[in-house]
Amino acid sequence: MEKSIFYHAGCPVCVSAEHDIIHLVGEPNVEVVHLGEDQGRIAEAEKAGVKSVPALVTPNGNVLHINFGASLADVKG
Amino acid sequence: MEKSIFYHAGCPVCVSAEHDIIHLVGEPNVEVVHLGEDQGRIAEAEKAGVKSVPALVTPNGNVLHINFGASLADVKG
Question: What is the pTM of this model?
């Protein structure tokens, strides 16, 4: 299975969702990207359709926005 | 692993998220509940903390609200 990508920004909502997603999907199946620390990947996340974090981009390119931690605009600062 | 419960109400956003979640988590690991057809389970969903559908309640009781299809109030009609 191709990997999903979990984008987050270190917020409490993000960290909680990260634990749940890794538990459910399996750690080897998820790449975790911290957009606060890795701002170079914000453009990639936007291109994938991510509007807010935490969000999971599935292997087939769908974006699942999970709960609501912060908008991508907030992450850009 | 205990099952997660995926609550939805048949909306397009719900159906799309359902396919993604079942693909990611594995069908045997998810119970799918259609609250529009099974209104008797709305109270259970509310008690679990579900505010909108689609939502996934994890085995440890966390609620992941995924994207936004409809509020639980709308589902009650």
Answer: 0.93
How far is A36 from chain B, CA to nearest CA, in Å? 22
Structure confidence at residue B77 as a pLDDT band (50, 70, 90):
confident
Are B57 and B1 within 8 A, CB to CB? Answer: no
Give me the pLDDT at residue B59, please: 94
Report residue B58 as tokens. 């994890």
Closest Cβ opposite residue A67 in set B4, B60, B64:
B64
**For the complex shown, is ipTM > 0.85?**
yes
Half-sphere CA count of B57, side-chain side, radius 13 A: 17
Q: How far is CA B33 from CA A46, B14, B30, B39, in A?
A: 32, 11, 10, 10
B9's tokens? 């109400």
